[in-house]
Amino acid sequence: MPRPSEPTRARIVQAASALFYNEGIRRVSVDEVAAKAGLTKRTLYYHFKSKDDLVAAYLAARDQPNLALFRTWFAEAEGGLPAKVEAIFRNLARSARHPKWKGCGFLRTSAELANMPGHPAIRIGAAHKKKFEDWLRAIFAEQGIADPLKLARQILLLLDGSFAVVQLHRDASYMETAGEAARTLIETALKKPGRKRG
Amino acid sequence: MPRPSEPTRARIVQAASALFYNEGIRRVSVDEVAAKAGLTKRTLYYHFKSKDDLVAAYLAARDQPNLALFRTWFAEAEGGLPAKVEAIFRNLARSARHPKWKGCGFLRTSAELANMPGHPAIRIGAAHKKKFEDWLRAIFAEQGIADPLKLARQILLLLDGSFAVVQLHRDASYMETAGEAARTLIETALKKPGRKRG
DNA sequence: TTGTGTATATTCACTGGTTAGTATACATAC
DNA sequence: GTATGTATACTAACCAGTGAATATACACAA
After folding, report:
1. What does the record give as the DNA-binding region (chains A, B) (predicted)?
2. Of A110, A130, A167, the CB nearest to B167
């Protein structure tokens, strides 16, 4: 049984993800994660050198799937650029209406660890947001928008703002409001001079 | 000495504010707060029935001063409506560049307590954001904007988004980017039909 | 086929430290 | 002498991380 090791590690990360996302990092003990994964704490510490390490793994595991979701929602949406971006917010609103939704795991973790700037989990969260920003920036640049980075950042601000506000008020309609704002900003940018192609 | 009681309570809230804001709720013990306030934990528990109670008092104490700051920044700014709202973001960027800045205390607390929806601190945070939203809505309504609530919510989304993003990346320039987005959204709304007066 | 060494994987039981909250007694002011 | 306020010293629980021992699988040799 020892040999594989990867399935065990993956099971631990899966258990940690569910608990950390639902309850928060500091409210969940390593023992609880181990119990949920069906093994003892000592075994968990064989696979991860510390709780911080486990937290980092939890966020790292969310990175690519999260971005892939955004890309899928964008790609599958009908209509032009504004509609495709707005579709991301509409899909997010649908997710947020699920009772188990608890906001953005990256932002919540970073908020919980706000006084530990060098923490690996915060670096992972920051990198995740940068990847999203960069993906949008490339799309906007391709469309010939004059300042694609600025527009990408404004969309990111609306996205993260809606995570925070929806979580606080438990009212997913803010996500659709954010989508409308995103549409307005993109349409304005498309009309501006300085574009490379129509 | 016993009689007054209010100054002692205020001193405790002040100590709690400094510690909770800088370090986070769960990282700070009641003993630390008491020590910072210059008294013992037992005395603190005479004035507050629990730590949760103290957390609620910490946020309640930030409510009015925070809103007053926004109102001041808005009132003292030169120019029209878009410029006055943008001034809030510029002033916030200046605050965020201070090394002790750690984001929005309301949002960070709500993120830390994300699984306790009935927690008094979360209700206080939600009410605070609603007050800000309502203040903006009234201003926009007075200016004859067609959908003042929607625009107020979009500005709120940008504001809270910038809190989250600036905290994560430690890059206050996002706040100015949010201010530009706010300006764009307001200018667009001002140009839209359906306005009551010019 | 059988024995043996080694890296991998897992467990039990423990330590040392922290923390929210309390029992009890004492002090001050009116 | 009673309300209010403060301090000392405690409890009971929790929790991150570790020491020492054990079990399994596989490589390789006999």
Report:
1. 29-48
2. A110
